[in-house]
Amino acid sequence: MAGAALLAAGACCEIEDGTTDIDSWPMPKKTYDPQVYTIKHPAMLHSADDIAYTKAHLGQAPWSDAYQKLLTSGFCDVTYKASPVAILARLDAGNWGDGGGRWDDAGIRDLYYPGIHNNYTNFFRDCAAAYQLALKWQLSDDAAAAATACKILEDWAAVNKGILVGRGPRFKDEVVDPNEYLIMFQIHQAANAAELLRNYNGWGESDKFKAVCTWLSDSFAPFCSKFLASNIYDHSWMNWDLASMTALLSIGILTENQDMINEAILHFKQGEGPGCIMGKGVIAVYDDPSGTGEKLAQGNESGRDQGHNVLCAAMVGTFCQMAYNIGEDLFAFEDARAIAFAQYIAKYNIVKPEIGTDYNKNNLSAASFRYAESTIPFTEYTYSGNLMTVISGAGRGEIRPCWDLWNGYCKSHGVKATYIKEMADMFRPDGGGGHYGGSSGGFDQLGFSTLMYHRE
After folding, report:
1. Distance between CA atoms of 319 and 234, rounded to whole angstroms?
2. CA angle 259, 324, 299 (to 5 degrees)
3. Which of 108, 225, 401, 406 is deepest in the core (most CB within 10 A)?
4. Which of 261, 231, 230, 233 is nearest to 247 (CA)?
5. pLDDT digit string (tens) for 308-358?
6. Other CB atoms closer than 10 Å to residue 360's CB: what's the count?
7. Cα 168-169-175 angle, rounded to 5 deg
8. Residue 447: which residues within 8 A CB-CB, separation 6 or more?
9. Where are the alpha helices (DSSP H) in 58-100?
């Protein structure tokens, strides 16, 4: 039945025995032309209308409660000081933490110092602070918050030279480890902070703003493009593509670079990597077996684990929202395929109401979830040499702050999305950096979707 459902949805290749090998899929057959986008600043995640709507509702729930979450996150502090580093690294401690021979092989022994392998933690905290302070300024006219946010970005632009790359013959001008590409999760966050601040006290016309734009464009965008071009062969997971795609789209909007914007959006529509919603990003599209009349779309990481699968929901939502605010409705693209993708993830991960919202997902059982696994269709697939025979229960119940972004769009556009709504209702109001742990999982998405996207 699963194979038949996929064929009915117009898959790229025939399935034998209910299993598909994504690695062998050709490019989607449809092609799309580049567009010229009209950018009305502020754009990206929040338009002027979005900001005005939230400001008008700050005195009532749930916006009032969501705003308090912003103010008490620990990162929305006007005394916050940035901790920029010259070279950013996100490396495995076992291979890189002790300054061993890999540093010599890469020709970068002189750059080593204890802790450099994971200094990207400075970056994700500072990006969260810059965004939250910029948002506070937009919502409350707190000039001190804006000044601090600008200073965070200026400090990074002045000190940082990008990510760690090799200098020896083996790694010449290349990242020394693929994990470096995951630093790109933070790039759209820095860019969104800068976008919110551009009309603060003329900052958007200043040399310091231009330096921030140059830093993001020169230090990170080329690596994003390189990764997206190479990932058609390396088969890294969907969230890796999304990190670079959101980075490119956000830098493109910030700097009004139409080529960069189109590169990101066209990769979403027709790219050969797993960030393509019409290609390797979606395994199959189904009619919901529960009889809602809605669609469910099984994603690239559904058989891997739910931590990464839910991260993909957050990042696809972010990507679609940024595109939406420059006039490209990717939520509705190809029969709302992105919404079906988020619906699938929401349905599998939502817990029963009696579980509440404060739980350890590692202590949940199958009985903890609102929908039985049997109601979530699954097609076996092979990706990156891994055969996925069942939907992964690892990390099931993952909480990431994104669901009111999806629900806000669906509600305002009259789209029925049962499982997105249930997830948003369950966890409203959500928070952001500072509310979901101190590791990268708590900071790879900006959050505060209730504050900025909930609609009456």
Report:
1. 22
2. 90
3. 406
4. 261
5. 999 999 999 999 999 999 999 999 999 999 999 999 999 999 999 999 999
6. 7
7. 65
8. 400, 401, 402, 430, 431, 432, 433, 435, 436
9. 63-71, 93-96
